[in-house]
Specification:
- The protein is mainly beta.
- It has two helices and 22 strands.
- The strands form five sheets. A seven-stranded mixed beta sheet has the order 18-17-20-21-11-12-22, with no helix packed on it. Strands 5-4-3-7-6 form a five-stranded antiparallel beta sheet. It has a five-stranded mixed beta sheet with strand order 14-13-15-16-19, with no helix packed on it.
- β8 and β9 form a beta hairpin.
- The chain is globular.
Length: 238
């Protein structure tokens, strides 16, 4: 994941995009809110912030979404959209940190509609395979969360293979599409699991996702997963 850099004549700020909760317009300036609740004033308007995200992050900038004229938010942190009350609540995963924001009904209605859209599948049908049960999990562009099957939390992919060491929300496979070359990039991120996520015996960070490639082996609990292209004649889709 690229480090975002904001710089001016007398100041330079470097920040990991994964730590950003939202940007909010403040006149001709913008306020950047981090997951730690630290506020940082940026001497640029919100349009310039969006341009900076697009230029430095490329397709990875899709992790953020503009809401109306005054907000840019981390989509993964959306907890509740209340159109009638004109409220948007963001929540940092695996923490008790909530951020309540105001936005217009029209902006929140549009955000709600985009959140309900079905994820876009990868053209080449890339998948993650449970090497124990041989079950496969098709991946889509964006975030793909994995965790142990339970009634108390929802992941896109719930693993039901008897491995109690897998946390209810364990790890995330992030898929980016680099344009115009149409090149896919894959990152793995631990989701603050109890015993960690590993790639080639290296523990994966919950803050800095690790770039991986086809053929990578990922271990969560006692289970190993392999990142691979689909062979539809030999796979069982969950």
């Amino acid at each position: 994941m690229n480090t975002l850099i904001f710089k001016w004549r007398d100041e330079l700020i470097q920040v990991n995009p994964e730590n950003i909760v939202y940007f909010q317009a403040d006149g001709n300036y913008s306020v950047m809110m981090l997951a730690s609740r630290k506020e940082q004033l940026l001497t640029m308007n919100l349009s310039k912030v969006q341009l900076t995200l697009d230029e430095q992050l490329g397709f990875q900038s899709t992790m953020f979404e503009k809401v109306g004229r005054d907000l840019i938010i981390r989509k993964d942190f959306i907890y509740c959209i209340q159109t009638l009350r004109k409220k948007l609540i963001l929540s940092v995963p695996n923490s008790e940190k909530f951020f309540e924001l105001e936005a217009s009904k029209e902006a929140l209605k549009k955000l709600k509609e985009t959140q309900q859209e079905k994820p876009k599948k990868i053209i080449n049908e890339v998948q993650l395979r449970d090497l124990q049960t041989r079950k496969i999990y098709p991946l889509h562009i964006g975030h793909n969360h994995f965790g142990r099957k339970t009634n108390s939390i929802e992941c896109e992919h719930q693993v039901d293979n008897g491995d109690a060491k897998i946390s209810r929300l364990h790890f995330n496979i992030i898929v980016y599409l680099q344009l115009p070359e149409t090149i896919y990039e894959f990152y793995v991120q631990d989701m603050y699991s109890a015993i960690g996520t590993f790639h080639n015996e290296e523990r994966i960070s919950s803050v800095n996702p690790k770039l991986i490639s086809i053929g990578a082996m990922i271990k969560a609990g006692k289970t190993e997963f392999g990142l691979e292209y689909a062979d539809l004649d030999k796979t069982e889709i969950t």
